Amino acid sequence: MIFVVAAISTSLPTCSAFNLTYPAVFNFGDSNSDTGGLVAGVAFPVGPPNGQNYFRKPSGRFCNGRLLVDFLSCNFVAGGSTILPSTTPRTPFSFGIQVAQFIRFKARVLELLTNDDYYLKMIMICLTEVTDLGLILGTKLQKYLPLENYFKQGLYMVDMGQNDLDGAFYFKSEDQVLDLSQKFCQNLRLELRLLYGEGARNFWIHNTGPFGCLPRIIATFGKNESKLDQLGCVGSHNRAAGLFNTQLHDLCASFRDQFADANVTYVDIFSVKWNLISNFASYGFKQPLAACCGHGGPPLNFDSRIACGETRILNGSKVTESPCNNTAEYINWDGNHYTEAANRVVSEQVLAEIRMT
Ligand SMILES: *[C@@H]1O[C@H](CO)[C@@H](O)[C@H](O)[C@H]1NC(C)=O
Ligand SMILES: *[C@@H]1O[C@H](CO)[C@@H](O)[C@H](O)[C@H]1NC(C)=O
Ligand SMILES: *[C@@H]1O[C@H](CO)[C@@H](O)[C@H](O)[C@H]1NC(C)=O
Ligand SMILES: *[C@@H]1O[C@H](CO)[C@@H](O)[C@H](O)[C@H]1NC(C)=O
Ligand SMILES: *[C@@H]1O[C@H](CO)[C@@H](O)[C@H](O)[C@H]1NC(C)=O
């Protein structure tokens, strides 16, 4: 509960963009879906111009506006989350920690619910305020909702893996990262199994996007053109994402076999994002790879020494990383995250894909 309270962020995402049939959505993920956990949890600065186009102020999201999860639902996530326990002190919320927090949170909610109405009301208010964190309660807040059912009937969205792979490439060869992938997947399976044990039955498992197309990755690992694929992205990273996704897909299938009463939907974010970057113009974008908020100009407009919104002295002159004038023309926001415009397209395609399955 302490975590819940600590992670309340000042702005609520819109939950009404799509009509989900789930009474609650619990989101577990990394900074692609972080709506404030990291900021609130460890005071990681997400300053302006983040949030400028939708919230009109920084909202704890690494984006100019809303994220995929904001479009899909509302939102236990923290930026920089990894499946394996994190070694970076700045981003301590691994999937395991998020699951442990969730389990404590759930126990506390159920405990308070057995008390009287006063607590029920307090919880309702609290939960409504922390939609950012993981819960949408139906707008009606019917008085005696069987809240316990929310945990069972709720949707568990899991978006993990990218940060594990991404981080590994800084220390390991491609072959070593490919070897590790299976381990990341097995850990994910253990955490899913824990959530299942807590009553979770409906899962959307997002696979990992083509993170070899992020400006930071291209600037760091793509200096030699022989490393780049047909889109100008770093091949090794996208291959690792591909392998991880194949393993994740198998994991989903075997989870369904083992737990016949679980609904497991594998959501192919990779294909959606790859398609978006490949056909950027047909979605109205002008810049498939460059960061909107960056420094250094084309083709990537990315400089690892300075972050979006920061001002620093570089080579003796003062440089501020400001956003581009038309964020809607860019797929990438800050070198690491997508713009709201791109998140919107991704969410529409994800929902179309899910409706078909
Ligand atoms: C949600 O449901 C309402 C009422 O049924 C409908 O008018 C609206 O178009 C739906 N929205 C979406 C995004 O499907
Ligand atoms: C780029 O990679 C190719 C193939 O691995 C290698 O032969 C070449 O020397 C590299 N070029 C530079 C500038 O490092
Ligand atoms: C699984 O999904 C189907 C259709 O969406 C639904 O009818 C069923 O109740 C779900 N199962 C569980 C255990 O929630
Ligand atoms: C900084 O100065 C060095 C040496 O003069 C130059 O090679 C480099 O391109 C400069 N960097 C920027 C970002 O201007
Ligand atoms: C944005 O537009 C203004 C006015 O046209 C221009 O001075 C500025 O350089 C532009 N900024 C960027 C990042 O392109």
Automatic annotation (TrEMBL):
<dbReference type="InterPro" id="IPR001087">
    <property type="entry name" value="GDSL"/>
</dbReference>
<dbReference type="InterPro" id="IPR036514">
    <property type="entry name" value="SGNH_hydro_sf"/>
</dbReference>
<keyword id="KW-0732">Signal</keyword>
<protein>
    <recommendedName>
        <fullName>GDSL esterase/lipase</fullName>
    </recommendedName>
</protein>
<keyword id="KW-0325">Glycoprotein</keyword>
<dbReference type="GO" id="GO:0016788">
    <property type="term" value="F:hydrolase activity, acting on ester bonds"/>
</dbReference>
<feature type="signal peptide">
    <location>
        <begin position="1"/>
        <end position="17"/>
    </location>
</feature>
<comment type="similarity">
    <text>Belongs to the 'GDSL' lipolytic enzyme family.</text>
</comment>
<dbReference type="Pfam" id="PF00657">
    <property type="entry name" value="Lipase_GDSL"/>
</dbReference>
